[in-house]
Amino acid sequence: MTERTDVLVVGAGVIGLTTAVHLAEQGLAVRLRGDQPPRETTSAAAMAVLSGPLLSDPADTASWEPYETVAAWHRLGLDTFAELAGLPGTGVRVTPGRWASRTEIADASWIHRLPGYEPCAPEEHPGFALAFRMTVPIVDMPVYFEHLTERLVAAGGALEIGSVASLDEAAAEAPVVVNCTGAYAQRLAGDPEVRPMRGQHVIVENPGVTDYFYEFSKGPKLTAFMPHGDRLVCGGTATRDDWSREPDPVQTEEIIARCAAVDPRIAGARVLGVETGLRAGRPRVRLEEETAGGARVIHNYGHAGAGVGLSWGCAHEVGRLVQRTGRVA
To answer: Reaction catalysed (predicted)?
Structure first.
């Protein structure tokens, strides 16, 4: 651990780890603390396909932030992950796949402007009203977390496993605290707007799937699968106000059935594991500063299902806030 601490980042999911890496690589003395290691956080179970606001009707996302702010964060993420895809050992690759919706979209003109957009023939999406192909980065989260952790250590940062009872307690340890606690910010920051969105994914032995599939319909049950070598991550669910991290066997069967309806090879695939996590649902991302216990506290949470895609853009925004009044002592 470094003798001085410029910034204490709380929460070791993809938002906290990315923020800590960015600040440490800017020359700040950073400590990252999470009550779980990155590989055991909600982010480790993420589908991690770079969609985010770019796959949302601007009319639906205008209330998050100014839409262009969120879109700019995501564009920076797309550029960063595209660069990472060219490096070995990052777990990131750019690959084609299908996006589908079970409902028609009244004005789909914005979809045609998505990167690499190509419409699918009707026989390619039975049961879905709309489908198209798009080539974007996808991320193998366990491998990616190893990459980020190595970068944090190489930049002089420290990773600690432990809890923080309050923001005042964290403020006693560093002049700047960055709150990246996701759904748990409801308790730590006393934010009633944060609601847990429980997700469950099933990991199966890959039966030969090479392209991803992702349903972007609205609702608690979605169909998606992401190939990562000999593993296939199948999903998923989005259940509001459910804090349970216990796998649900019924949901496991439903997820496999939905995915097998798209690609029948999945029906007989051997199940390797079931992962659950709690996304931080919120009407808009909270990225702002306040004072607590004499320290500057920067909140960076509420990314819902877009945390991976927004992680680098929000990390850069935190970096600007940290350095706004000059180098921290």
So the answer is: a D-alpha-amino acid + O2 + H2O = a 2-oxocarboxylate + H2O2 + NH4(+)
Report the distance separating Cα 8 and Cα 163, nearest Å.
Answer: 12
Count the domains in the chain: 1
At 269 the three-state DSSP class reads coil
Number of H helices, E strands in the chain: 8, 15
Of the candidates 33, 42, 40, 41, the residue with the CA atom closest to the CA atom of residue 279: 42
Q: Kindly state whether residue 2 falls inside one of the protein's structural domains.
A: no
Residues in the chain, pLDDT under 50: 1-2, 53, 56-65, 327, 329
CATH number for 114: 3.30.9.10
What's at 290, amino acid-wise?
E
Q: Determine the structural domain holding residue 255 and report its residue range.
A: 7-323
Cβ atoms within 10 Å, residue 25: 17
User: SS3 breakdown of the chain: % helix, strand, coil, rounded to 5?
Assistant: 35, 30, 35
pLDDT, position 71: 82
The answer to whether the beta carbons of residues 97 and 134 sit under 8 Å apart is yes
Beta-strand pair 130-139/92-101: antiparallel
CA distance 59 to 105: 12
* CA distance linking residue 244 with residue 198, whole number of Å: 7
Q: How far apart are CA 94 and CA 232, in angstroms?
A: 16
In a domain, 1, yes or no: no
Q: Which of 262, 254, 269 lies closest to 201 in space, CA to CA?
A: 254
pLDDT tens sequence across 88-119: 999 999 999 999 999 888 777 778 877 788 99
